[in-house]
Design a protein that fits this description.
It is a single chain. This protein is 72% helix and 0% strand. It is mainly α. It has three domains: 1-139; 156-270, no CATH class; 284-378, Serine Threonine Protein Phosphatase 5, Tetratricopeptide repeat, CATH 1.25.40.
Amino acid sequence: LNMAAHYFENVALWSELVLEKKKVIDEIHKSFSPVISHLFIYPELIDPVFSMIQLLGKWQEESSLKLLAHALGDEMILSLERDLDELLAFCQLFGQTFGGHLFHSQVMERCFLQFSERLKERDTTTLLPMWQLVNALSETPTQYCETIARLAETEIYTTIILDTPALTRTQMTLSFYKQMEKDPAAHHRLASQLLNYGKLLWQREGQETKGTHLMDLALAMTPQEYKEHFHRDLEIFLSDLFTLAEKANTVRRLSLLHDTLAHFQISRQSQASPIRIANYLADGFYLYSTNQYYAAEAHADWVLKLDPYNQEAIRLQGLTYYHQGKYNQALASLKRLESLDQISLKALILSDVFSSQENQGQIAQTDVFEKLVVTSQP
């Protein structure tokens, strides 16, 4: 490399050697590009590769340097899963050698681009080690930290939409965001936005569980001095929803709200009068008689939250489980009955048979079911 540098520095002005120089550069690039992928496996390759890069820089071969920078940046990202400590040590040596040079900036930009893509793809498993890499490479880590925090905040909302109700990926993204952004005011602002988003999800049928988990994450994000205000805001919102659900007699929503209020330790008692419970049961038995077993189950579950030992609700719950093929659950419910009528007894026996078949890997055939007709006596 030193001989090549000396040779072309002294004869580069000769026009007939320009093409020869280009061939040498192409050969250098062709020979060393594959070596990039072995840098972190064979450290003895680092010095010749660095010398080659310095030579190309001296010759101002920007296109070749850019290709090598992309290859090196990509290889750094791939190496994250192998040995992070070794990679970070390499970054330190790389910074000492190329700090302030164009090649250093090109590698940094490539790594940051890959980091941004991973963030947009919601690949949360490598976010922290990727940030450690970017931080080790960057000459202005604070600036990059702020940029990454803004990127993470932007991606949080897309992640929420695509995430499961448990919001596992969202939680990981938020955890990463908190490591990037240390300003309590920024945490409070984001927590308020997440709370509002959680309220919005509670307005959508089927999104209530996700909304509750998002409120949980918002509460965890809220700085301590704002938690009391946050909790009060949450209490007012959920209590108002509960009142509306009671007026509309939407049992499924009442049950969800009951659990959510308990989860956030908010005291809100339903008007569990005997007349109201009887009405819930009457509605549940009507739904059962019209084969709407899922809805009937919701009514039984709701009554049992108000009155855990209500025998009619236990009976209705067991029968709805039976007709939905939930034999183990049906068996558990029907065994709680203090006395069994003919219908409940038959459901208990059949549930025992079918659950045993299921537990032994056999499939109970639905065409042998006997429909159990029951009428309500509110």
